[in-house]
Fold each of these.
Amino acid sequence: MDHQEVQTGCFGYLLARKARSKAPRNAQAAFRGDHPQMASRADVHQNPSPLGVAEKTDEIKYYSPCCCFSFGSESERWIEQEVPPSYSPTVISASTDDNSVATIVERTLDKESRKLRVLSLKIHDHPELMFNEKYAHDTLTNFMEQNGFKVIRRYLGLDTAWRAEYAQGKGGRVIGINSEMDALAGMGHACGHNLIAISGVGVAIALKAALEAQPNISAKIILLGTPAEEGGGGKVILLEGGAYEEMDACLMCHPSTGPPRSTNIGSSNAMQSIVVEYFGHSAHAGGAPWEGTNALDAAFIAYSGISMLRQQIKPDHRVHGVVEGKNWLPNVIPDYAKMHWLARAPTSSELIPFVKRVRNCLEAAAIATGCKIKITVENAYFDLHQNSVLAQGFADIVGSRYGLEATSDSTTASTDFGNVSYGPPYPFAALPALHPSFAIPTVPNGGNHTPAFATAARSEAAHTATITIAKGLALTAYRVLTDEGFFTRVKASFEQGKAADDKQHSRF
């Protein structure tokens, strides 16, 4: 068999850590960049499977799509008919040393809320797929320029990536923020990236206002517009290009289903995207089928093999995919078939052997049918490492000021922000990171990556929840920039995780 492969490999050596932690965890895994199986992106990016399958464990239902961060039991979820909760500040948090700063942040976001709402609806009503977020790119960069930020369009060679910067004084710490923009094919903004886009914008604008009120503080804000989260690994490309090197910490958020007035600071799954193509030989299916080599048969065998593999995988592992083709006719032996698979595991180290088992099924199908095979392994998404100090600081703020309940349930979702949160020896700069998810109201069975969630992401209640989370992130970010003791603990938590990783890595 003529065996062709490109971009082989999943990860380098990645170290295990405990999964399903009930408390925010430090960065606890490492990547050896010189391993021959280091992940790299494919030349052609493919859309992920649009909808995952719900699984139930310990009365908590998780959804499987790329970035579904649903949390809480199904019975607790915020249903859209319920009256939106009030997010007015209740108790002044001891986590913000200067209460006037909290007032500035909150008043700024309240004042800009209507403009941000318009911005969100514009992006929502013009959905664009990964690496094609041109309308969102132009709309968001124009908005940031109008608000006094220095903007770099088409950042680091990506047509729809961008960077907005505000610097005050000389030196000081640098806070990073992310805004996602891409939608899903056939569903639009069914993962709420319009809300993620404006949350990043809101955090940056509120932080700028807070810094301007304290002109003696030297600091920098960097907001990145990150394309292609839905399978293209835009943040991984930016990370490799050095977009995060200047930052001392990075924050973002993500909407999901969950109980009203709630946020989640748990981890996510690692994920590997695999595209396989089978090349056969066409023939007349009725006249001389023996002259053909059936590529569709190879795809069916691979699908059956992976289906049987599911019986022997752990309950917290996932593998799901679709079959594609071109010019198929019932009276012609198909000479080409294509499949796109996503493999997931709680940690990157668990993902490595799992991906190998999936590949065995794909390669066996080519052997069985005599087809040639081409496997493209795309950018891997690492499991999310929430910085424990950032997570606790954020939870304290949104709990005391806005009455939000913070949980730390891990989900089977995956995000390319996980790569940003990984520490050395991952070969590209990673840093302390925070990625809370937050509940918005939807209908039953209307979680991320469903048409119902696209509708939910346009609602007034979802916008209100987003603004509240943006306030909490902005106040947390302000502490990173101005509170020396807090940042020291943030960095110590990150370094402690790196040291634990190095110790574990020595066993390999």
Amino acid sequence: MFSRVLKIESIHMFDENNPNAPYPSVSNKVHMRNVIGLASDYNGKRIFYSDIQEGQSIVYSSTDLILQCWWKFHILSPNRTRSNNRKFLVCAFQEITFAGYGASITLKRATVKKMKQGSVEGLAYDTVHKDLYWTSHSNSSLSRINLATSNSSAEVIIQLGVDDKPRGIDVDSCASRIYWTNWNARNPSIQRAFLTGFDLQSIVETNIRMPNALALDHKAQRLYWSDARLDKVERCNLDGTERYVLLNEHPQHPFDLAVYGDFIFWTDWVSHAVLRADKYTGNNVVTLRKNIARPMGIVAIANDTDCTLNPCHVLNGGCEDQCNVAVDGRVICTCFLGKQANCTKEEFECGNGMCIPFELTCDGVSACRNGTDEDEIYCKTRMCPLTSSTAPTTVAFQRAVCVMDRTAVGITVMKFYVAVQLINSDAILGTLH
């Protein structure tokens, strides 16, 4: 779903050829006058949006509001199948329904909870603690409110300096950290801190001008962010290391960003569009919606976007020591600094402290719990250990199998047998000792 100042609209994430919206747009002349940020609570069937317009309605003491919406499943008739049912939107403090197959929308109980929070732009929802977080551009602060109880009040958790301008925001509730972009004219940055506000860090401070949007990829443990001045989208680790420029041609003024599956989605003020691209390479850029005067916030509505998707949170990913995640979500096990696996020279070290015989590597069957013994690049370039005086040599074969061979005198020798075709046509097919 994405916001466009006066309304919130929906779009198919993967069907760019379908111009029809999954749900009717949501709009209201009183309560939706400058909609900016979006966040979602899939389990609670709610979406949240912020509105920064200073209105004159008697309902508000300030119209810098955060409103929430949710879906309910509406059964049209007991005799109808599930495919004929329709969902209807309910905006907290307002109710939005639509009848049958049409898109007529009615608003009911239009009472608004006042939350004077300055210019609220970025929103993020913590699914674990049921907290809603937001950035205030005018107050230079990050705040939250707990939505598990009805009598909660907003609290400022991080008060930044007068020159700081926080914008995009996301939360990793499993690691108890919050991430945000900072427009500070002198020192723009990507920052993070614990949910208590402790240990504030600037994790990206170079080659950055106006960081607008920010989104966490929980499954891959990566951070994506966009720069509206440098017109690019970058990816990095959650500590700011291993930065990679994903896009620097198609984004012309990226405003907000979302990550889901194998894709990133963003709104663009110059392109006047909602776009999608491959999150690994930045290729395959697709325009999902165009001719949008001012596209604002964007959020992926799905049930698998929270921090519990981190594979390292389940039995440490099967690792004995450190569990890390590759950009595609695969677990990579490493030893703690200064610690080495106690594998012999005839064994393969899996990366999690586990040792297996070399003859079990690259045989098409994973013997390591993390699958490192069948890694494609390793199997193309690996060297089999030799017990003779001949030094190990890398051979350019696509795949070969190391096998143990016992000589007549009982000496174990590792042999390297070619299993698949040669990459180098000059190489000689045979057995290497």
Amino acid sequence: MAFTFFSTKLSTPYYYLTVPSSPHTLNSLVSQPFPTFNCLLNLPLHHHSPYHGSRTLLARSRNGGSPVRTGGGGGGGGRGGGDGRGGGDEDGAFHNRREALMVLTKLRRPVETLPKDLAAAIEAGKIPGSVVERFLELEKQLIFRWLLQFGGFAERLLGDDLFLAKVAMECGVGIFTKTAAEWERRRDNFAKELDFVFADVVMALIADFMLVWLPAPTVSLRRPLAISAGTLSKFFYGCPDNAFQVALAGTSYSLLQRVGAIVRNGAKLFAVGTGASLVGTALTNLLINARKVFDKSFAVDGEEVPVLSTSAAYGTYMSVSSNLRYQVLAGVIEQRILEPWLHNHKLVLSAICFAFRTGNTFLGSLLWVDFVRWIGIQRTRER
């Protein structure tokens, strides 16, 4: 039997085996005892090895189960599987798994040293080698190594290595752009409507993080759903986080699933917007009442912001306007246009993303002021 061995730690051996396509030799190898394998790659032992160029991969579980053929190649290996999925899915998973394991082998990185969710995704063939390479690159930096321990951050950083920079962009320019937009719309009434301005800025800052988080393209590392999960849960589980994001190799999304991403994020953003507005308007009303005590003239002009109606309006605005704008920004403009174009120029890419996100934030502030005036929650005050 032909195999080679390497280990980065004595207690965790790794055996890499290539099996020829010849059924006679395959049967003779399968019938022989061999060590328990953590992972097996379709790699030749030597260029002069009699097994060089074989296309069949065998795998054996940790508990010593029988070898299982998981994929075929040019020799006419079988397709499909017993899980009911089409051949395309299984082929995609096989190639993803092979790519990922080849990357780890090249860098002599044991699978056991990876986070459990990432290791499970590799084993399931959900992620290609490029994602593993991105993880290993991000892991070199302390801040990213810490964030990669958390599933939500790991999914987003693997989907977009500039995710953290975009969070900083949104929150960093939030106060300036929101305040500038309020001034643009209110002008001479800015000082008189300072209570409205304060409420809008507070609501926006609370929501800024979630507006980057929810529509961000991701690499799914989620665990499989329980068999008892309902139909709706199963449907949304299969939806992408961004309706327009590029699907990884071996993965595809239907039109219905992409629409489902918009609906799901819209529901989440409605809850976020409503909650943020409740906090912001409640604080504003406290400020207004405090000013009335010390400034009687302000008591005439000032009026309490309607908490419930403003909160519901902001939740609706975020679920529709903000949801669509940020999905298009992250999934179309950034991932599908700017990223392929400027992939090797991260500084330029970051600068252009900053410009687009700043403009989007300012536009959102203008639309919010128009929206609340249109539905009658806020009125223009007379001079």
